[in-house]
Amino acid sequence: MDAIDPLEQALHAARALVIADLVAREVAQAEVVSLVEEAVAHRRWWVEQWPDGIEYVAGLVAQDVQDALLERYGRWPLCPVCGSGDPHALDVEPELGPDPHWVCGKAGVVVAPVGGLTGTGPT
Known about the structure:
The protein is mainly alpha-helical. The protein has helices spanning 6-24, 30-49, 57-72; strands at residues 91-93, 101-104, 109-113. The longest helix has 20 residues, at 30-49. The model has no long low-confidence stretch (mean pLDDT 91).
């Protein structure tokens, strides 16, 4: 049996994590999942150019999807921590690093790892 290519493994893991967050927040419609596929394709090229960046792929795909959603649909995922004020999206931290998390930048609170959002709170 052939060994699994680390690049493909990282890309599949990133796809699964972001889709899990989309499903948890009930926004995983076909057109949104297509945005995930576009982000994964873009990051495949990116990692082929910079192989040392393989451990950053999950956070980057999450950010790419978040940016694409903002352009087409609005902020995502909305912060479940701040109950008052204007609705705002969570941020991915670190922006370029391993072990990415969804973080409320206003409150300075880690909400969940990428792939670990729950269905509670705003979408």
